[in-house]
Design brief:
There is one protein chain. The mean pLDDT is 95. This protein has one domain: Dimeric alpha+beta barrel (Alpha-Beta Plaits, 2-Layer Sandwich), CATH 3.30.70. The strands form two sheets. The protein has a four-stranded antiparallel beta sheet, with helices on one face. Strands 5-6 form a two-stranded antiparallel sheet. The longest helix has 11 residues. Helix content is 29%, strand content 36%. The chain is built from four helices and six strands, in the order E-H-H-E-E-H-H-E-E-E. By secondary structure, the chain is of the alpha+beta class.
C-alpha cells in the first residue's frame, strides 16, 4: 500500500544534510524496491532544500514509520517534522492517467 512521508527540515539542518548525504543515498539504493518516488523539497525562491517527500510501498503506517526512521537523515536529525499518510494514486502521468477510467 502506498504511503506518503513528508519530512520538514529542522532549522540548521543544512550541515547534517551535507554530512550524511552519502549514507542517505546508500540507504536509498538499498531500499529502492520500496520507493515509488522520492526527492528533496525546495524553497521556490531560493532553491534551498526544505524537506523531503517520499511515496513508499509498505504494508501499513507502522512500516512507513520504520522505513523513515531507518534513514541516516532521521538519526542525524535532519527532519524535525514527519507526516505519514496513506496515499491513493488516482491521476497523473506517473500513475498512467486516470485511475477511475481503468476499472
Amino acid at each position: 500500500m502506498p504511503f506518503s512521508i513528508l519530512g520538514r527540515d529542522a532549522p540548521g539542518s543544512d550541515a547534517p544534510r551535507r554530512q550524511h548525504l552519502d549514507a542517505h543515498l546508500a540507504h536509498v539504493e538499498r531500499v529502492i524496491d520500496r520507493i515509488l518516488v522520492a526527492g528533496p523539497l525546495r524553497d521556490p525562491s531560493s532553491g534551498a532544500t526544505v524537506g523531503s517527500l517520499l511515496v513508499v510501498d509498505v504494508p501499513d503506517a507502522a512500516a512507513a514509520r520504520a522505513f523513515i526512521e531507518a534513514d541516516p537523515y532521521y538519526a542525524a536529525g535532519v527532519w524535525d517534522e514527519i507526516a505519514i499518510e496513506a496515499f491513493s494514486p488516482a491521476a497523473g502521468t506517473w500513475v498512467g492517467g486516470l485511475a477511475w477510467k481503468r476499472r
